[in-house]
Amino acid sequence: MPVNINAFKLFVEAISNKSQSGNTVTVSEFEIFCHQAQMQVFEKDRLTFLKTGDSSDFLDWFLKSTTINPSTLTGYAPYPKDFQHTAGVRAYYNKIERPVELVENKAWGEVQASKLFPPTRLFPKYTEFASEYRFLPKNIGIVMLDYWKEPVKPVWGWTIVNNNQVYDPSTSVDFEWADFATNQIASVYLSLIGCNLKDKELEGFSQQFKAENNNLL
Q1: How far apart are CA 98 and CA 91, in angstroms?
Q2: What per-residue confidence (pLDDT) applies to 22?
Q3: pLDDT in tens, 34-70
Q4: How far apart are CA 87 and CA 132, in angstroms?
Q5: What is the per-residue DSSP string for the chain?
Q6: Cα separation, 127 vs 107, whole angstroms
Q7: What integer pLDDT is reported at residue 153 of this predicted model?
């Protein structure tokens, strides 16, 4: 179950207060730091995947699959609206899925001009530009795309009650990841506001918070 943004806010505020960091964070700053924290973990885990091939539970939370239809005139296809990074690209040849080889931008011109090893439907290729994929051959057909979506930006919605900001769930946007990642994201968030804790300290705060708040997280 995705983590509630208000529960996370109460959690990190409790830790910040108990650790006596003395930092005051506005709502807009809180939202910015939350997104920065989850993106730092996201990018770190993606780099680990690129190096080792091992995907984390956190990264898997954002993995999606879809099909795209490149133009037969240009071979171009736009990224999905929530696209962040490519995980894998495949296309059919004789009813069998085959991987599509990634080519760096700087070599794309050479690939297009190659007469010895031109891209074919048996050995298709693609490259990535700012907002689109480009495929060869242009008649590659339907492409199966695995990609990591962009984590949604959390929003702590609020209203004014007795001159105080009060949490408003109707205008809030929760995180997409589940509670298994709470301590990891909280650790990065707290470091961003200048509150650095060791893992054991954070785990202790976490257990105490859950006990005092009926397992709110």
Answers
A1: 5
A2: 58
A3: 999 999 999 999 999 999 989 999 999 999 999 999 9
A4: 15
A5: -BPPHHHHHHHHHHHHHHTT------HHHHHHHHHHHHHHHHHHHHHHHHHH-PPPHHHHTTEEEEEE---TTT-EEEPPTTEEEEEEEEEEETTEEEEPEE--HHHHHHHHH-SSS---SSS-EEEE-SSEEEEESTT---EEEEEEEPPPPPB--EEEETTEEEE-GGG-B--SSBGGGHHHHHHHHHHHTT----HHHHHHHHHHHHHHTTS--
A6: 9
A7: 97
